[in-house]
Write a structure and sequence with these properties.
By secondary structure, the protein is an alpha/beta fold. The chain has three domains: 164 residues, no CATH class; 76 residues, no CATH class; 125 residues, CBS-domain (Roll), CATH 3.10.580.10. It contains 13 helices and ten strands. Strand 5, helix 9 and strand 6 form a beta-alpha-beta unit. Helix 3 runs antiparallel to helix 4 and helix 6 packs antiparallel against helix 7. The structure holds zinc ion (ZN). Zinc ion (ZN) binds next to helix 2. Zinc ion binds next to helix 2.
């Protein structure tokens, strides 16, 4: 399912909005039309009130976009390709190719976003104070501008502080790791930063449990805890698999099976060959139409083994990866496409097959060797 749509391009980067963002476009204007201090509850007629509330929402999310563009601009100067920026319900995500393990680059890229937010916040706050001191906020138009400035200043300062919480997946987590990387190996630095992030998450959760008005802290704590664990897992994998190519891990002899084979026949073959996955070919055209593994046939009752055909249980999605791709990219591809096996290609012909099990086993063995 397509969950985001592109709304434009800035600095050559596609800007997208996620489906969850539609909720923001309803919820935020609603809140701003009810709030009297920074919102527009006192404004009549109602259409003007809603128009102002919607404008404020769009301005706020433009600030989130500017924050992400701040990260992206610095990243691009380090030669990192930015694939897209997506606005989601809780903020923005800049999808970029892997940041090099250079603490300086990571530090600068991570701090750029919060600095953009801080700058906007401070400038808008100064303008807000300036308008207030002239005593002209009684004029409606000036009053609206003043409220825009006040809200934008407030939200940007919140964005600045929130993003600098020293925990993954916040920017502050990356800054912290960069700080550690200058002093120790990358994986160890990540683990340190992850542990501090988890500690923060636990403190936030406890705070959320004790203070009734801070219940939403529990949600953020959960989000941080998961984000921190994922960063650790991912770094472990990419560090361990560093320099290893798909061709180093793949199984070279491939046993093809026809799609009209029965499960009993397939089981016999599996027992004989002891492979994990088998590409399935169409019995007439010889074209690859799927992949079948032992997991796919587990659900078939024993009594049906003679009747059910491979084509009924196989995974129809087949993904390919070049032989010289990095092993970590194979892992990324499997999780992105939700498949357990990839067929390996070299110069247009299939030369092997690689499975998630092959990869995790290598991570275990290599990780053990490194300790
Ligand atoms: Zn950021």
């Amino acid at each position: 399912m397509k969950t985001s749509i592109q709304i434009g391009k800035v600095m050559g980067i596609p800007i997208k909005i996620h489906i969850s963002f539609l909720l923001v476009l309803v919820l935020f204007p609603y809140v701003f039309s009810k709030d009297a201090e920074f919102g527009f509850a006192d404004v009549t007629p109602a259409p003007l009130r809603y128009a102002l509330a919607l404008t404020l929402t769009i301005l706020l999310f433009s600030c989130v976009l500017l924050h992400e563009l701040g990260h992206s601009w610095v990243a691009m100067r380090y030669g990192i390709k930015i694939r897209s920026i997506t606005l989601i319900i809780l903020g923005g995500i800049a999808a970029m190719d892997e940041v090099p393990r250079d603490p300086r680059a990571e530090m600068r890229i991570s701090i750029a976003g919060p600095l953009v937010s801080l700058t906007i916040g401070v400038l808008c706050y100064l303008a807000y104070l300036g308008l207030g001191s002239y005593g002209i906020v009684q004029i409606p138009t000036i009053s609206y501008i003043s409220r825009f400035l006040g809200s934008i200043a407030y939200i940007n300062i919140v964005l600045f502080v929130f993003n600098l919480i020293p925990a993954f997946p916040m920017d502050g987590g990356r800054v912290l790791r960069a700080w550690y990387v200058k002093r120790m190996p990358y994986l160890q630095a990540t683990r340190k930063a992850v542990n501090i992030g988890k500690m923060f998450a636990i403190i936030m959760a406890v705070f959320g449990l004790l203070v009734p008005s801070a219940v939403w802290f529990i949600l953020i704590a959960f989000f941080i805890y998961i984000g921190a664990s994922e960063e650790e897992k991912y770094t472990e994998m990419s560090v361990t698999l560093e320099g290893i190519k798909v061709r180093d891990l793949m199984t070279r002899e491939i046993a093809y099976v026809q799609d009209n084979l029965t499960i009993s026949e397939l089981l016999r073959l599996m027992f004989e060959k002891k492979h994990l996955g088998y590409p399935v070919v169409d019995q007439f055209t010889g074209k690859i139409v799927g992949i079948v593994t032992f997991t796919d046939i587990r659900g078939v009752p024993m009594s049906e083994h003679g009747n059910v055909l491979v084509r009924e249980v196989m995974a129809k999605k087949v993904s390919f990866i070049p032989e010289d791709a990095d092993a970590v990219d194979a892992l990324k591809m499997m999780s992105a496409e939700n498949v357990g096996q990839l067929l390996v290609q070299d110069n247009g012909s299939i030369t092997g097959i690689v499975s998630g099990t092959d990869l995790t086993r290598s991570i275990e063995v290599l990780g053990y060797r490194e300790q």
